[in-house]
Amino acid sequence: MKSLAIFASGSGTNAENIIRYFSNSEFFKVAIVLSNKQGAGVHERAKKLNVPSISFSREAFESGEAILDILKTYQIDFIVLAGFMSKIADNLLAAYPHKIINIHPALLPKFGGKGMYGMHVHRAVIASGETKSGISIHYIDEHYDEGPIIFQAECPVLADDTPESLCERIHQLEHKWYPEIIEKVLTD
User: Fold this and answer.
1) pTM of the model
2) What one-character DSSP code corresponds to residue 41?
């Protein structure tokens, strides 16, 4: 059985969706949730689903050694970023080459890079006059949102959209596709 770690910074809706998706799998399991925010809602969601979760400091994450020790303890094969707002340390990238994926709430390469997350992305998409947006699932590399794209799904940007209404459609795409694409990547 392959073990996954989910890294999350926020409320954890994607993390919960992924945990539930793999909860009855014979081949994959979410072994741990890691967060750079002690008060993140993802901890409560993980606890309800009987998945251990750990918070870590910025220093611990930047050095990467303590995180690598945790990943080794839980025998992690693959890392999934689900609303994780920190850049991945080089030693983690080296330890998990092509084994860390992320989901971005736009059609990369547009609207990616440092500072482009959450509502910032949706505001920028609407302000630019785009007629479509979507999600991009991609491998992580040393640059924000520049790793090889694995999958994209689109949705329309409507004339009366607000960042919040666009965000809702994007979340629907995330919840539909992210677990399925994770499973596909793990089985390829």
Assistant:
1) 0.95
2) T
